[in-house]
Amino acid sequence: MYAINWDVWLPLCILASSLLPGLLIFFLPEERVVMRTLLNLGGASLKLVLVGILIWGVFNGHHYEFRFSLLPGLDLVLRADALSLLFVALSAVLWLITTVYAIGYLEGSPHRSRFFGFFSLCVTATVGVALAGNLMTFLLFFEMLTLVTYPLIVHRGTQEARRAGRIYLAYTVAGGTSLLVGTVWLYGLAGSLEFTSQGFVADLVTGHRVELVIIFVLLIAGVGVKAALLPLHGWLPQAMVAAAPVSALLHAVAVVKAGAFGIVRVVYDVYGIDFAVSLGVALPLAILAAVTILYGSVRALFQDDLKRRLAFSTVSQVSYIVLGTAIVGPVAAVGGLVHLVHQGVMKITLFFCAGNLAETLGVHKISEMDGVGRRMPWTMAAFTIGAFGMIGAPPMAGFISKWYLGLGALEAGQGWVVPVLVGSSLLNAAYFLPVLYRAWFKVPAASWPAERSFGRVETSLALLLPPLITAFLSLLLGLLASAPFSPLQWVRFIITLEYVP
Amino acid sequence: MNSALTLPSLLLIPVLPLLLAIALMLPPLRRFALWFAPWAALPALVVSLLMVPGVSVELPWLLFGSYLGFDETAGVFLFFTALLWLVAGVYSTGYFSESCSRAWFLSWFLLAMAGNLGLIVAQDMVLFYTFFTLMSFASYGLVIFQRTPEALRAGRIYIILAVLGEVMLFAALVLAARAAGSIEFVAVQSALAEAALRDWIIGLMLLGFGIKAGVIGLHVWLPLAHPVAPTPASAVLSGAMISAGLLGWLRVLPLGELALPGWGGVVLAAGLLAIFYAAFVGLLQRDAKTVLAYSSISTMGVMTAALGLGFIAPENWPLILAAILVYALQHGLAKAALFLGVDMVTAAPVSKWQRYLLIAGLLLPALSLAGAPMTSGMIAKYLLHVQAASVASFWAGWLQVLLPWSSVATCLLMARFLYLVWPRQRAGSVVVVKTRMMWLSWTVLFMVVVLSPGFLPFSAAEGLWLPEKLAGALWPVVFAGGLAAVIYWLAKHGKWPFHFRIASGDILLPVERVLWPVLHAMMLRSYRTLFKRRFLLSIYRRVGQCYSGLVFLLEAGENGFRRWAVGASLFLVLVMIFMFLAWQIIF
Amino acid sequence: METLTLLSWAFDVTLGLTLMWLAWRALASEDLFKGIVLFIAFGLLMALAWVRLDAPDIALAEAAIGAGLTGALLLGALAKLEAGAESRSRRSEILPRPADKTKVFSGLLVFLLLALVVMLVYAIVKLPPLASGLSAQVAENITASGVSNPVTATLLNFRAYDTLLEMAVLLLAVLGIRSLAVVQEPRGREPGAVLDMLSHLLVPLLILVSGYLLWVGSYAAGGAFQAGAVLAATGVLLLLTGWLPGAWFVGWPLRFLLIFGLAVFVAVTLVLQLFGASFLEFPPSLAGSLILLIEVAAALSIGVTLTALFLGGRPQPEPPSSGRAEKRNTSGTQPS
Amino acid sequence: MSSDLFYALTGASLFTLGLYALIKHAHILRKILAINVMGSGVFLLLVALAAGGQQAFDPVPHAMVITGIVVAISATALALALMLRLREASGLAVLPDTSPEELSEQLPEAPSDVASKNNGKNA
Amino acid sequence: MLAQSFSWQVTVIILPLVAALLCFMLPKWGRWLGLVMAFAITGSVIVLAYQVMNQGALRYAVGGWGAPLGIDLYVDGLSLLMLMVVALVGLVVSVYSMAYFKAGKAVHFWPLWMLLWTAMNALFLSADIFNLYVTLELLGLAAVALVALAGGVDALGAAMRYLLVSLLGSLCYLLGVALLYHSFGTVDIALLAERVESTPAVWAAMALMTVGLLFKTALFPLHFWLPPAHASAPAPVSALLSALVVKASFYILLRLWLEVFSQDSTAAAQLLGVLGAAAVLWGGVQALRQTRLKMLIAYSTVSQIGYLFLVFPLASLMAWQAGLYLLLSHALAKAAMFLAAGNILCFGGHDRIADLDRVAQRLPLSLTAFALAGVSSMGLPFSGGFIGKWMLLDAALQSGQWWWVAVIIVGGLLAAAYIFNVIGHSFTRAEISHEAKPVPAIMEWSALVLALAAVLMGLFASWPLAVMDIGAPFGGGGS
């Protein structure tokens, strides 16, 4: 007689809680809306509960690890460490919200079973990325993420969608390859790929400095594609043709996050921050991130398509995470990591709102947004909160990250980061405030491009509630940043682990 | 006040307007909220009057752990700020006849109010900054409320500068927090003295808050924004919110901690420049509210100069601070009274006693601003003058000399204002229906202005009402009045030789002229067309040519392989190559 | 003795050179028919060479199969080619003879082939002078094999597994050809009198020869393949004289005959396995008779199979099924 | 050089000769002939080398060659059937390695081939 | 006695042979007989696997004669895995063919297919190079006959060319056998491995046999026959050919190189690697250019075969394992792809990639199968292809021959490009297709099962890798 050891199986259950519904959904006929919705929401809720249990367990000293041998000496490891919990929790929460939104958004559109199937798989892969306990596992789920996101991007099947999908693939598959080569190479040198909180490379490899630098570049290039680091960001603005829930997934929950998370993993748990510094790779990474931040913002300025503007904004914002990671110092790291959560919540709000505009009014371009705040005040209120968060205005969540980044940069003696942050905030304001201005203060046009009526409410509730919730969250995350169980507190805890041996 | 009530009452100050603002946005609650909205500042006023200074409360869950507190500075600021907001709020009920636009206006109004009141009781940088930001952005709604082209332009300029100020402040605050290792004002002020990047921090602070405070060079939004806002908004903008920047300086800058003559000189000089430059430009304006706005800049120049004095003479700081506080108070009240009065003049038919009241109501605050005898303005100027005299420094000397002349300048401005505002014809531009509340609020404010010298609790003021001191305060007013009369007479008879004018916004205009076209060009000829046209296209073509060549190669190659003779020959070739490779080993 | 050696050496050289010349002519001849005839001659001379190499078994096989039946197959195919050519445009029969005209290409090819020959020759010459081979082992075990002809012993005992698979290959060829469903040309002409007479004389004789070869195979040159080939020759002769298998025959009886040899082979070995022998192990006591049994079956099957190869395709036009209709359509032409 | 060795070399030559024809000639029937010639060459080589030295008569290669011959005729038969089927389908007994245009350009060049074939048939 | 003389190895060979005879004899029952026998063969392969895993590598003397005189059957991890993948693919293809072939062609398909299976099982079990020649011929002729089963001009031409290639390759191989036999007096691989030395004859044999087998394996630049043959054959046949048949000749090559030609052949090994690299790239680029789905898949095979040859210059244990792993997962994936393509072809009547949108949306299972198999081909997780690629990369990096890494990478990217080129078309907005034939569910599921198997290869790699080590087939190859 032996009881099931939940310490082993819980991570797998978390994975399965979206994998199985996803697979089941594939086989559902298109008309079985209720069943599909039940599966979707059931899976999402279950995952949330399981993640809750996981967090509770970790607090109570449980060590969750699932291990499965893939190759001799290489295991598929799902482990719940502090860092992964952060990402898992983020994905779980946002997934539930996004699911609600997606159900509302895609109401009545074709191929929903396919969509939601991949949707669930996408989250599965993300959770896998989050829980990966070694680089190999990370790579596996990372690549899986690439694959299952593709159908979502091309879901609409239009010419642009397919083009976007192609570009997305071109970038991500190439990136995945780079990651693969880096991983294999590293494995050859180190003989292990287990994430350890101070990095394992320094302990296991002696010499080979040049190789290690090359591997670092390969790994960062690999994950950097998804994180949309500067020369590798091209897919992200293209991918905005996808439906709003997909954009939300791409930009907030899954893809971009996975990339940023990967960079964190590589820098902290593979190389170890000290070793990365001694290799001289941290500073270039930070500079790259800084350049990306500014570049993304500048490009965003020139976009008339709302989602495209948001996409470039993501390019810029995600690099905050990278920047925080690459600046050597615990405080900056807190800023970077907490931005992982904050950016997710804020950007998902923005994309939800953009989706609402498109879905309800047919508004896609910023130039069509005149006076949209009067027609859809709730949506635009959420959008406003998100936008201010992006600008980094207090007390939104974005401010918290920015504050810590600035503080951390100074702590690490890298004052040049502050102007970057300032410049980015300025640019953010420059491309968000005009949008808000149009929406709130301009006189609406006589008619909207494609208006749909939803009765008393401005749009359907399933579309309206998610952005409101996330907007509220992004306010709350900033306002109550110091409250116990806030992401900030959690990230501080993580960083203590990474920095204190 | 009971200490158990400290936290709730302090919290209530910003939260009440916030809640009301939210309630206003929710249609079901709107009617209800409209009733209470004008009175949202009342708790703050009560607190400012009743609470004993020197309390502080920590809110560990808020942001990075925040502090709310109430000290003397906060007391003064809270008093006049709350009063102004209250008055303006009540005034607005009469000003806006339509409930819809009133609700719309009040939403912004309350948000800005929450920011402004909140930042006064905030005791750490982050919370302060949060409220400051709230105020800044909410003010935008007030500025562009009228939606006229001027309002929109003013709003644009305002928001650009506000955002600039925000980010500069962000940088400054981060630097300060890093230097201090804390975000509490107390800690920061003392830590800043030794901070490595002290000059950066101070510079950024001065600029960041300076935008709000209308420091010369960054003042350009003020004369644009204040006139176009609805009158109650102008009143709080010019009276209360402008002081928020000042409060920021007072809270964060290491004043009284160490002597920074360099900064002191710069700030003092800027202040002096602002006083006279703004007065000069203001005199050339043709809109009453614009003149008032320039007057604000000018007055803020005085306070800036005082700040500079504080840099130069840290040992005198407590007294300088007192002077600044008095100055801020009297300026806020008087300026608000003037702004509100502008509309009273143009408002609906007035009775006779109302007319007298109106004359008094405009004249007295104007005199107060100018520092005429028996006004709080005089007290403020006097306090400052004493401090300027006690500091031995090049710039302080200038301040001492020029301070009375600032009164002259203000006085001239006021004369210009009165000239412009004086009702010449009956065509009221604003049709006001419910004037009762307007009269009520304005009267209350006017009374406070008049009575303020009485309750200012400054010991130094005791010897103030001596004749020589009164005379010292009087001459600038008389001089300016005479000058104004002369100019008026000359102008009336067409003998005034100077006819040029400077549009409001002064130095902004050339900047705009350069900036907008550039921005427009960038926006229109966007990135894509700019770069892709020639360079990328040519590359693309070249790649295309290579590509088609490659395709041909591939096709021809594969077709070649398909031909049996070629394929089988390749087989033979491979056999031979393998054999050859083997033979190399043999021989 | 020396003269004899010299003579035989001269004979061998002449034979070899003739073989090469014949092969060359057969392949290079402009006329396909001539080429095939030369190829048959080449096969016959090959048989002679086998005899010179002390390989009478191969010689028999070569003569019967390599030269005889292959020749018949080739000629039959050529006839069908031309029959087809008559029914359609002549031009379609015309062939671009040299696949590539470029001299450079040919030159290169020749050069490469010459190099190949040189290398092969070098390799052969450098082979160890005394290639022991397996003759000793064969001699050792010949008694246990049940037959005295070492070649038969090797074929049907030592390496019986090869033979089993080889019969599968043969079956496969028939299967393949049947699946291709080459439509029978209607045989319009009567056999000439000579051929008819010949067949009457030859058929019993050939069957007799076949039986003899089968029998003799256990101790001298001969065996199942040779016997089968002779049987097949009989069949081909019959076919040439216009005999066509009856309708009753072309169904399962024919199929049964085709697989008969293989089936017996498998059955024997399976039965033996039941009695504890390993796969394809013949108990020495029974080996002779078992091998004979297998050979008989195999010879019969081989004969039928080779005849079927000559016949080509399914002998009986099946009732038009959907599959066939499809096939016709894809080919686009209806044979007359 | 013993005659066995000579036969072996003959085998190698036949192999090469067949290979040449296999590569060069377009008609499938010729290719089939070439394959057979090559096969004969290999068989010759296999047996001739085994006969090296009069004392040892190695039956194993003999068996192999017999097997090989049977395999060869099987392959030949299948190839011929396939060729006929291909001819029936495409009208040409050549490999589809050249484009139709190319082929039709080459067609008028060989009327002599037809003539000689007709002669052969009559004979 | 029975226990010793009876061997499942024999069963594995005899069963399909008997099946072929039965199917031929009883054409009306052919389909069901074939299916039952397919299950039986698979079952016996499983039993054999069980036996081998318990007892290690097995050698079986056919006829009780033993190596130099008789023929040995030998099964170790390498051959066992080949047998198993043949069984798995074979079983699924059999099930698929039940629905695919209608009465007319089924009569021919089943005996031919069973003979093909016989040939493959015999080939993988044989330890005798001449016996291998016979199995190779059996295999080649069966494959050609199966290709010709499709009946069109393309198929016939392709089959003809395939036959010639097959025969030429076999003859070269046989010439090599002759040279080896006369050098060392044996045709048993194990004995040859003991006796082999460096002589001109061995090197000539090496060249002839290697290139002969390369021809059959369709390594660039000798790949030209493969795409037409594999593309024009009926779908199940394409699956068998691409998944298994080309692997058979590769298997012989691998065995020879591991055992017989293992010494001093670095230059030749490098050449094989170079050719493999060229194949990877050329095949990938050509696949990218194709407009027809089955052609694309066939060129993908050309490309994937190239990977197998990259292991020769690396020649480490890890590399051999990687190669074998790639081989196995490619077999599964490619079979799945061809079956899926067959479904699409069957459904819409064409396989033009540009017009797939009309078809692919209606066949989600087939498309899924194609996509999953594609994932394996690209070497993305989770799939057997990924594991194989991982190990190959590892081996390449460890040997310091990093340039192969570049080839592997580019190959993977090309694969991604051409796979997603197809998948992308399936996401276009659906239009009602004018005529569509329903595809039996069993056909769709068959493709999916194989694709899933390829995916599972990526999750359960330890077991195949453990099986690979039975009998240490690569022990001699490690340098």
The gist of it:
The complex is a heteropentamer of chains A (501), B (587), C (336), D (123) and E (479). Chain D is mainly alpha-helical.
- Strand tally of chain C is 0
Order of helices and strands of chain C: HHHHHHHHHHHHH
The fraction of residues in strands of chain A falls at under 5%
Q: Write down the domain tally of chain C.
A: 3
What do the pLDDT scores of chain A average to? 87
Structural class of chain A: mainly alpha
Shape of chain C: globular
Biggest sheet architecture of chain A: 2 strands, antiparallel
The chain-level structural class of chain C is mainly alpha
> Over all CA atoms, what is the radius of gyration of chain C?
23 Å
Distance between the termini of chain C: 64 Å
| Low confidence ranges of chain C | 87-100, 317-336
- DSSP helical segment count of chain A: 21
> What is the mean predicted local confidence, pLDDT of chain C?
78
Cα radius of gyration of chain A in angstroms: 21 Å
How are helices and strands ordered from N to C of chain A? HHEEHHHHHHHHHHHHHHHHHHH
Ends apart, CA distance between termini of chain A: 40 Å
Helix content of chain C: over 70%
Kindly list the characteristics that best describe this protein.
heteropentamer; C: 336 residues; mainly alpha; 3 domains; 13 helices; disordered C terminus; D: 123 residues; Helix Hairpins
Description:
The complex is a heteropentamer of chains A (501), B (587), C (336), D (123) and E (479). Chain B is mainly alpha-helical. Chain B has 22 helices and 2 strands. The model of chain B is unreliable at 427-432 (pLDDT under 50). Chain D has 123 residues and is mostly helical. In chain D, 78% of the residues lie in helices and 0% in strands. In chain D, helix 1 packs antiparallel against helix 2 and helix 2 runs antiparallel to helix 3. The longest helix of chain D has 32 residues, at 59-90. Residues 99-123 of chain D have low confidence and may be disordered. With 479 residues, chain E is mainly alpha-helical. Chain E has a domain at 265-473. A two-stranded antiparallel ribbon of chain E has the order 1-2. In chain E, helix 4 runs antiparallel to helix 5 (103-125), helix 7 packs antiparallel against helix 9 (200-217) and helix 13 (293-314) runs antiparallel to helix 14. The mean pLDDT of chain E is 88. Chains in contact: A-B, A-E, B-C, B-D, B-E, C-D, C-E, D-E. Chain A binds chain E through residues 26, 68-72, 76, 110-111, 114, 139-141, 143-144, 146-147, 150-151, 154-158, 161-162, 165-166, 169-170, 173-174, 176-177, 180-181, 184-185, 187-188, and chain E through 357, 361, 364, 368, 375, 378-382, 386-387, 389-391, 393-394, 397-398, 405, 409, 412-413, 416-417, 420, 423-425, 427-430, 458-459, 461-462, 465.
